[in-house]
Protein 1
Amino acid sequence: MKIFDYFVHFLDVFSKILFPFNVSPFILYPFFVLISFMIILCFFRNKKLAYLKLLMFIYLLVISIKLLLSGSSHSSKSIIASELSEYKSYASRICLSCIGIE
Amino acid sequence: MMRILLKIRFFFGGLSFFVFNSYLKGFSQGIYTGSAKRFCAPFINCHSCPSATFSCPVGVSQHIFTYRHLAGATVIPQFVFGFLISISLLLGKLVCGWLCPFGLVQALLNRIRTLKIKIPHPVTNVKYFIFFLMIIFLPSVTGEPWFCKLCPVGSLEAGIPLIAFGTASGALRDLAQSMFSLKLSILLAFLVFSIYSKRPFCRMVCPVGAVFSFFGRFSLIRVRINKEFCTSCRLCEKVCPIELPIEKAVSSGNCFLCGECVKACNRKALRFGFNENYNIVFNKLFSAFGCKKKNIEKSP
């Protein structure tokens, strides 16, 4: 059961990175599979895939801007109210991991 | 102009180190806590260093993923990923080649003339596994930042300065135990490895490099080859830090865009330019609208 939980967690992580919109899993997961397939296609060195590569470039650029904007805004839905203030409070103390202690 | 910039490339690495670690008061007054820490550096730059002015993208990502263990919720470090993906889409791995201080240290160490060992290309894919395991899986499952615990960059930039000159160096020296010895051993191993191989940490381990490599395939900027001028002398391949045939190197996401090949090419067959794939599309679109593209290639 736990392994299945982790699998869903990872699917959640990667799908929320490649398709960061609040939609039902019925739409999210098929779309995530489609995007992943298109990205894998772009790995092939074929000049016929130039249009797909440009399309994916534009899609990923839009997604990265969306991630930047939603990361910098205050969200009441998440358990973290603001990502940037969370970064600041975490990075402003010596975590001691740098000397191997947590 | 480009040739001059390429000659002083290492200067940019040093400059970025001082920009991202400019709070020197931190060594006497304690770690920087200003608002710049809300944003992360575009490379691994340990924020536990007393002089660090920005947060580390790897450190904060792991911290956000630990919420899975601590609160049972899947939280994504959206800002970090958005930031890293947008950089890799626009600039590829230019940051790794020009700005990363640890990359600079490795490149300088590799200048020592001795026996050189080639890293097989498939081994460089290990970084994707490390990214998955150390940045997402282990922090989500154990609630601890495991990459930071072993990170050699953290040892060099934060661990050693904290223990040597920090305000609480005496107390930290007593706290540091076998894990810190392990971290120092990893750091030493990578520094020695850098003498014999080209940028081993960047190519095999770096999680930021893994994100840049994956999305760098779509990057806008690339090294372009003009096959008309190429004499297949292979000088570019000898200096390339990713040790791949030049056609493969420039089209893979692993290219650091360091410009060593551009500098080495006597025939000027290599230059920085826009991604060839996008050029193909734009040329077709231009020709469809009846516009002719100017031939800007100059003979060497």
Protein 2
Amino acid sequence: MHIMEGFLPPMWAAFWFAISLPVVVYGIIKLNKLIKEKPQTKSLLAVAGAFAFVLSALKLPSVTGSCSHPTGTGLGAICFGPAIASVLATIVLLFQALFLAHGGLTTLGANVFSMGIVGPVVAYIVFKTCRKVNLGVLIAVFFAAALGNWATYVTTSIQLALAFPAIDGGFMESFKIFATIFAITQIPLAIFEGLLTALIMKYIIQVRGDITDQLNVTTKAVSS
Amino acid sequence: MRSKLLSLILMLIAVLIVSVQPICLAQEEVEEEEEEVWGGADGEAGDQIIVINPNYEPWFESIWEPPSGEIESMLFSLQAAIGALIIGLFFGYYYALKKQET
């Protein structure tokens, strides 16, 4: 989902920066508040960040014959909410833009929007909805992380199609092209990310169920 | 305890299936296609941009690029290693702490 450096026209690059920046700033404020009020969550925060680090470094082969990677932001979104997850995603994306020439500084705004905002927001909403209808925590985590991952890649396709509408057919035609590259490649990887996130959540609950209770991740599970 | 072990094994199998199956499935394509196989989807999108809009010139270059593919893989592994280290530390620490309590 990384849009390569320089591959968004300046106007679109600025547009996505303008949208992403306030969310990340809000996330940093929320992050500081969380560390102040619940310092015991710091270790889990580190794990959520580290999880995104590991997963976004794994480029996996997929059915379409190309490689793509999971995002790892679902865990952070489920535990801490989308705003804080967007801060974690920004750190990962900045690392990759600076040291790996993967993604870029000019496209950072757009990449933060897809991986740091849309993905986590979708994951968060899916998680809360699954919990409302009384699905188990791990099943909810699976759906949240998988759909969050997939939403990230659909967003990238939309962003590219908006910036590069085809001469024949315009936005929809371009969207089809980019969605074929990203959204289809991503289906098995989204399932992979969902399973892996559920797995790590299972262990987190085992060793630090007290923290997930405090963050309202596991609290409603008591009744089921 | 037994059901825990079972769920762990099931999950690991699922993870394996999802990560290995594409290689088997796409084996035929590999022979037919002449372009680079198992390339990154990100780069592919970049190529498509040029197809849709041949006049587009990327207006900004990466400030620094890994000098070779090997160095790039090294940095990617480093990224994964940093993350894995932190995750391992967390689970190791609290697992031992929990064990001590009981």
